[in-house]
Amino acid sequence: MLQLDALSKTYKTGDAALKNVSLRVPKGQIVGLIGPSGAGKSTLIRCINRLVEPSSGKVLLGDVDLAALGARQLRQQRRRIGMIFQEYALVERLTVMENVLSGRLGYVPFWRSWLRRFPPDDIRNAFRLLDRVGLLEHADKRADALSGGQRQRVGIARALAQEPELLLVDEPTASLDPKTSRQIMRLLTEICEERGLPAIVNIHDVPLAQQFMQRIVGLRAGQVVFDGPPEQLTENVLTTIYGAEDWNAMRRGDEEQAEAEADAARRLEAIAR
């Protein structure tokens, strides 16, 4: 279980990105973080694995307070946390398989990683993961030869190669088209359910969050202003999270996107005839 107690982050400029955020994420639960730009969503995720240093508060993964660890202990504990990035964070010149195996770097001696000589069990597991995310036939392709959706699948497989106890996912669909976004979200939720993995997903697409997340946490100005199931995201709640002007603009954008998708489907149907 992940537990955040009064987690805060204030930058040197005096800007408070997070203000006493307290959350508990039990095993197997998938939490969607929503909120306007600057609400603190990415900061929250990065404070958990200390890519950003919290100013105060606790980050408990099981019985270990990640916020209190020294550098060496933190490196060991980070192996327990899989991170999936918006921009994939792949090594473009390496193959898909090599990128997935990089998820094992925290477990193998330096000489093995330098020579890319990973244990046979790690290699077999990497093949299984590539099969699970639908990329087995692309194992030997360079990462820069893949589509955006395929790159995100490699990122998912790499995170799972760590055998994590928690997944942190930062804007996994921001660079993807609507159909691919749904496929990626479906894959993530299925994998978390299969493995009993808790996950926190920073997601900007509210309808997508409502469709796939078990629980929604709404942030505004660094504070939790909503925490509940997707069906409780009423118009009033969304206005509280985003503000009236921002929410209305977002809703218009969703409607226009849905109409564009429907129009594209009608055109394809007409061509098929």
TrEMBL record:
<dbReference type="InterPro" id="IPR017871">
    <property type="entry name" value="ABC_transporter-like_CS"/>
</dbReference>
<keyword id="KW-0067">ATP-binding</keyword>
<protein>
    <submittedName>
        <fullName>Phosphonate ABC transporter ATP-binding protein</fullName>
    </submittedName>
</protein>
<dbReference type="InterPro" id="IPR003439">
    <property type="entry name" value="ABC_transporter-like_ATP-bd"/>
</dbReference>
<dbReference type="Pfam" id="PF00005">
    <property type="entry name" value="ABC_tran"/>
</dbReference>
<keyword id="KW-0547">Nucleotide-binding</keyword>
<dbReference type="GO" id="GO:0005524">
    <property type="term" value="F:ATP binding"/>
</dbReference>
<dbReference type="GO" id="GO:0016887">
    <property type="term" value="F:ATP hydrolysis activity"/>
</dbReference>
<dbReference type="GO" id="GO:0016020">
    <property type="term" value="C:membrane"/>
</dbReference>
<keyword id="KW-1003">Cell membrane</keyword>
<keyword id="KW-0813">Transport</keyword>
<dbReference type="InterPro" id="IPR003593">
    <property type="entry name" value="AAA+_ATPase"/>
</dbReference>
<dbReference type="InterPro" id="IPR027417">
    <property type="entry name" value="P-loop_NTPase"/>
</dbReference>
<keyword id="KW-1278">Translocase</keyword>
<keyword id="KW-0472">Membrane</keyword>
<feature type="domain" description="ABC transporter">
    <location>
        <begin position="2"/>
        <end position="246"/>
    </location>
</feature>
<dbReference type="GO" id="GO:0015416">
    <property type="term" value="F:ABC-type phosphonate transporter activity"/>
</dbReference>
<dbReference type="InterPro" id="IPR012693">
    <property type="entry name" value="ABC_transpr_PhnC"/>
</dbReference>
<dbReference type="InterPro" id="IPR050086">
    <property type="entry name" value="MetN_ABC_transporter-like"/>
</dbReference>
